[in-house]
Amino acid sequence: MTTQEPEYKAPVQIPQKAGWGAWAMVVVLTLAYTVSFIDRQVLNLLVEPLKAEFDLSDTRLSLLQGLAFTSAYIVFSPIFGRMSDTSNRRNIVLGGVAVWSIFTALCGLARNYWQMFGARVGVGAAEASLTPAAWSMIADRFPPHLLPRAMSILLMGPYIGGGLALIFGGLLLEFAENNSFGSLDAWQVVFIAAAVPGVLICAILLLIREPARSADKDGAEEAAMPLAEVWRGFRARGKFYFNFYAGMSGIVIALYAFPAWMPAVLMRKFGAEAASVGLHYGTLVLIGGSLGVLAGPTLGRLLEKKGLKGSLMVVPLIGASAIFLLSIGLALAGSYEAGLVFGGLASFAYSLPMAAASGALQIVTPNRMRGMASAIYVFIVSVIGLGAAPTIVALITDLVIGDEARVDQSLAITCAGAALVSLFLLVRARRAYIDLAAND
């Protein structure tokens, strides 16, 4: 991926309003984010075909969902974070989309478990490019009062993408099972088809320009802080960053555990077909997740108008509380419809804090270290959330409960426990956020 230096010299002040070009950039980045989650999560609907094809246990299958993707994602996130502070961010995103689309297609051409594992590693490495570059670009095009709204639009991508992966993945899987595609199995056709939208996104990204970098409040004009100064900034604000990163990781565990295992819950516990699960649960993920991420900044503003300090950091506390209750409800669900209700409401609950929390992180982080702050956020929540969540559920199912039909209980234990830890840490993060916001 290119590391070409962007064509700007001195940074400019953050604009006080956002024009159509800024919102168009957000839409294009949201499309890229949507495609990334289609490529990332379409595997979740293919759990049963892949288990049969490669003779996998839940634990080995979960390594494709988590470790294979995350091992590369967490290694490359800081690299792309630093590049996003020093290089052309539009080109970073463009190269990332092209590479992860190629590796998604290679997932469909895999002939054994380790080929699939390697292709998932490639998808993870390339997708690490998007978040730090996109967040930094948006922060340079929007004033602070519009930043949470812009972030909420971007963060619709995971839920639109995750929902579309299930909806169209299920329909395409059913179509492929009933038609011949030569030597390709139905699950292979789904992977290859999921790679196609990335080509269109690459073409659209060519129309987006690299934003000028805004100056910090101190008027500094370096394009990026020296690394030593970046680490000093993290240490000085360590109470916020530690509790924020760790606390949000608990919510991200639910964000990845539910989509990874809810299709299996609905199929194993209630005997539903993959196509039906994809359509029903996928629709709920798309609607519930999108509404949640859009509602977060609105809820934050309402709380702020009521005089509640650190309102953006109150929203994650509400989300974590809801995740705890809904996880318990899922374990008690006695029908397919009830399982769908709890799964759909959970998608709203774990998406609700995402835009508000991302906006809070950008607001209290100096401009010239935002790329690294975003990358470290992605790194930590990926290790704990994306990397660990699917495997924690699988290990509880395989080693503790010992019955794959009771995966709903494993999912509930994992997400309820993570939500409780998250609540404790996010209370501390909010206190530190209030202090930082007052000082800045």
Automatic annotation (TrEMBL):
Keywords: Membrane, Transmembrane, Transmembrane helix, Transport. Coiled coil: none annotated. The keyword Glycosyltransferase does not apply. One of its GO terms (molecular function) is transmembrane transporter activity. It is a multi-pass membrane protein. Gene3D superfamilies: MFS general substrate transporter like domains (1.20.1250.20). GO terms for cellular component: membrane. CDD domains: MFS_spinster_like. The chain crosses the membrane at residues 20-38, 59-80, 92-110, 153-175, 187-208, 240-258, 278-300, 312-334, 340-364, 376-397, 409-427. The keyword Transmembrane applies. It is found in: Membrane. Residues 25-430 form the Major facilitator superfamily (MFS) profile domain. This is MFS transporter. It comes from Croceicoccus pelagius.
